[in-house]
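Project outcomes to date are best conveyed with an example. Our students and postdoctoral researchers have been running inverse folding experiments weekly, and each run begins with a structure described purely in tokens. The record below, which covers 383 residues, was selected by the lab manager from last quarter's runs and is presented without edits.
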């Protein structure tokens, strides 16, 4: 058995243990586990990874690429992803445009980069996430507020400057971003991991080791999927993944000299789960609309919750699968074919539904004609 497959089975086994713990762990308890991962374990891993790389101005390309991907996916969400929904589902379409272009690599991507590739790739992914954070924290918030103001009947519009200021502070106070800033400052002044005091270095390395099992257990415990809209959400996630494969495949084909670890990073990072931050923005808009007594909400909050619930396990399984068969997914042809295949498959339920809606009136009309009924006549009242 090869190393990648053996590693994958080990990861799936730990996820399975987390799934078995679902009955013993309440949903609110998972918030504490998530805080432990995102505030302690993951920052320690990123800090160690950062202090092992050599600082170079060319690294700025990674956050720029991530932000460019977010913007491309935003356009795709409007014109390709949301096409499966009818015109009446405008709230769901706006929800899709908020969630599907966003990325949450912390839980769905970073742990597996550390396991399957190396710490250098994890550090580059953390830098790329800076561009993604700008998109999800600032751009999507402004987009949500713009929709709210356009649809609001109120003449006076509350200022968004205070909210943007608080979002900026939240961006700086987030542990992962604090670690990025401290790590980059240390690198700027020529420090590395060995430059730290022994007790500090050993503490960071000790905390780093708890991340992988903690994340895998969390994924297993957190998988709770609402089956009501599962088919629609699954098709949207498959289409999102297919478009991502296409974009990555074309990029890798344009730059054939890229190293294998870098190609895998470019393939895996955009496949991360949807971010929670757009949901926070939508919830804020929902609260304002409740205060305004608006009956027609801008976003479908329940639909957003279901997308988030499906996105994490979907991305986790997909990323593990990519790493398990990494020798195939470094080939741009395979990436492009996978993208085309997944995109086509995701449209099959939509096409079947369209065919049924087209055929239904024809069959109904033929049936009425056969019975000798006039479907255009008005019903008469009986005496």
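After processing, the design step wrote out the following sequence:
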């Amino acid at each position: 058995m090869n190393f990648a497959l053996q590693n994958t089975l080990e990861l799936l086994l730990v996820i399975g243990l987390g799934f078995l713990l679902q009955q013993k762990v309440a949903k609110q308890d998972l918030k504490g586990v998530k805080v432990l991962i995102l505030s302690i374990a993951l920052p320690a891993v990123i800090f160690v990874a950062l202090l092992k790389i050599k600082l170079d101005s060319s690294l700025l390309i990674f956050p720029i690429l991530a932000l460019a991907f977010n913007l491309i996916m935003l356009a795709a969400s409007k014109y390709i992803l949301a096409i499966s929904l009818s015109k009446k589902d405008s709230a769901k379409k706006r929800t899709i445009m908020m969630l599907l272009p966003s990325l949450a690599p912390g839980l769905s991507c970073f742990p597996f980069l550390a396991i399957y590739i190396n710490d250098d790739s994890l550090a580059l992914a953390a830098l790329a996430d800076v561009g993604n954070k700008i998109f999800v924290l600032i751009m999507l918030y402004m987009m949500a507020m713009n929709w709210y103001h356009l649809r609001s009947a109120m003449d006076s519009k509350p200022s968004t400057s205070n909210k943007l200021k608080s979002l900026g502070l939240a961006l700086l106070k987030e542990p992962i971003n604090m670690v990025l800033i401290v790590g980059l400052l240390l690198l700027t002044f020529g420090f590395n991991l060995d430059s730290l005091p022994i007790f500090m270095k050993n503490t960071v390395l000790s905390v780093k080791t708890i991340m992988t099992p903690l994340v895998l257990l969390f994924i297993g415990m957190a998988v709770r999927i609402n089956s009501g809209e599962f088919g629609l959400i699954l098709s949207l996630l498959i289409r999102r993944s297919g478009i991502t494969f296409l974009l990555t495949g074309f990029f890798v084909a344009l730059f054939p000299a890229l190293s294998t670890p870098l190609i895998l990073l470019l393939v895996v990072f955009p496949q991360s789960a949807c971010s929670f931050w757009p949901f926070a923005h939508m919830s804020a808009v929902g609260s304002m609309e409740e205060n305004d007594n608006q009956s027609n909400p801008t976003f479908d909050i329940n639909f957003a919750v279901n997308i988030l619930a499906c996105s994490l396990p979907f991305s986790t399984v997909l990323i593990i699968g990519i790493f398990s068969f990494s020798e195939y997914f470094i080939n741009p042809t395979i990436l492009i074919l996978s993208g085309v295949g997944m995109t086509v498959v995701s449209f099959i339920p939509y096409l079947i539904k369209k065919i049924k809606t087209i055929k239904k009136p024809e069959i109904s009309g033929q049936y009425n004609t056969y019975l000798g009924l006039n479907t255009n006549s008005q019903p008469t009242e009986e005496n």
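The chain is about 75% helix and 0% strand. The chain has one domain: 3-234+273-329. The training component of this project remains on track.
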